[in-house]
Amino acid sequence: MIGLAFQCPLEEASPRIVRAMRLSDPAQRGFAFTAAGTAARLRGELTPELCAALRAEGPGGIAENAIRDTLTFVPLRRLPWWFTWQMVRTTVLDKLDAWRLRATFAAEDAWKALRGRRA
């Protein structure tokens, strides 16, 4: 699947990638979603069928990286409205994660400094 994304035009590869996204084997499905993300990176666009397949799978699962690749490399004006909401969702989640990490590291540094003074 990933080879198709690299070598074939998107219109030819898209039906095959969508078909592979419906397979029962999780590993093969993972390759299909990776191919969709790769197509978004290389072409800067996705077909409506690939967008629909990513939406059907939804975020938080096997399609998460493909959705994030699409949001990174495809302009929002070329995507359906659902991806706009995903952009908002991922931005908020990323910001919350950054704040959590910053607070965790600050607490660890404070603890180390406190322990260093007592020793």
Q: Rg, please?
A: 19 Å
Distance between the termini: 58 Å
Q: Tell me the structural class.
A: mainly alpha
Mean pLDDT: 91
Inertia-based shape: elongated
Order of helices and strands: HHHHHH
State the low-pLDDT regions, or none: none
Reported for the largest beta sheet, the result is: none
Provide the number of structural domains: 1
Helix coverage percent of residues? over 70%
Question: Number of helical segments?
Answer: 6
Q: Give the number of DSSP strands.
A: 0
Q: Per DSSP, what share of the residues sits in E-state strands of 2 or more residues?
A: under 5%
In short:
The chain is mainly α and 119 residues long. It has six helices and no strands.
How would you characterize this protein structure?
The protein is mostly helical and 119 residues long. The protein has one domain (2-118). It contains six helices and no strands. Helix 2 (10-21) packs antiparallel against helix 3 (26-43) and helix 3 packs parallel to helix 5 (64-73). The protein is elongated, with a radius of gyration of 19 Å.
Topology:
Elements: H1 2-7, H2 10-21, H3 26-43, H4 48-57, H5 64-73, H6 81-118
Helix pairs in contact: 2-3, 3-5
Describe this protein with a few key phrases.
mainly alpha, single chain, 119 residues
